[in-house]
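Let us work through a complete example step by step.
Step 1: write down the sequence.
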Amino acid sequence: MNAQRARLVALAVAVLLPGCQKLPGSSSSEASATTTTSSSTTGTTATSSTSMTTGTTSLVTMTSTTEPETETETETEGCLFLGCGDTPRDDNECDPWLQDCPEGEKCMPWANDGGSAWNALKCSPIDPAPVGPGDVCTAEESGVSGVDNCDAHSMCWDVDPETLEGVCLPFCMGTSAEDATCGAGFYCNLVGDGVLILCQPLCDPLSQDCPGDDLCIPHGEIFICVLDASGEAGFYGDPCEYANACGAGLYCLNPEYVEGCQSAGCCTPFCDTTKSPMCPGATQECIPWYAEGMAPPQYENVGICGIPQ
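Step 2: predict the structure and record it as tokens.
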């Protein structure tokens, strides 16, 4: 079978990511995935309530299909960013690419409505003894408060709601979405009209090498670490509606690929195409994730257990 990489219709760093999906062999006239979409278009969530669509990807850099904010969107009515004093300003009061906050502050995403979604930008104080990318960090009040002890070029990510500890991840480099870059082993994730511009690590779905309890799942041409939304479920054959609703090492596929699946999608494991197949379904095979010769470096052996179509 001339396998093709299954296509993720919509994915982001939100906890609920749309999309169980089809695999190789599906008719071109059919939809590429069965998805559940969200009405939200402005933010990414730190809980299980909202999802966002991200843009196209390459091995290191991902740019958003959403146009970046214009200069007028970072100004207040009758008051430019500099010189406003104590006058209240619009929520998007700074530019994360330019980091144009006053000295001693950084431009940070936050939830301006007290909710769980990063939907605005503000200038926040830089901690006097900041920690850097890769270090354990602490957020104030919540993971979406926009205040943490990471340095001027990073933010606290994957914050535990009880301990408020997370890990500092760097902001994307560049001046806009068009020239966004990250260091080796990272991709630039642009979400929510440029509210979140974060370098997130690439990962290996076969070893599930993400930090903490994060999942390694596909996103465009690559695999990325996202928050685990499986809860007490997410085992083989369990019903799922979201890309990150299965446990580590599994992924949500359309029902025709999983024996006995009676829902919009069911969880099934990734597998190594170079090893003896160990798929749990009697009629499942280890189907290559990428077309022959199309796998990016480090992903040549990635497959997923599914019933051939």
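Step 3: interpret the result. Residues 68-170 form one domain.
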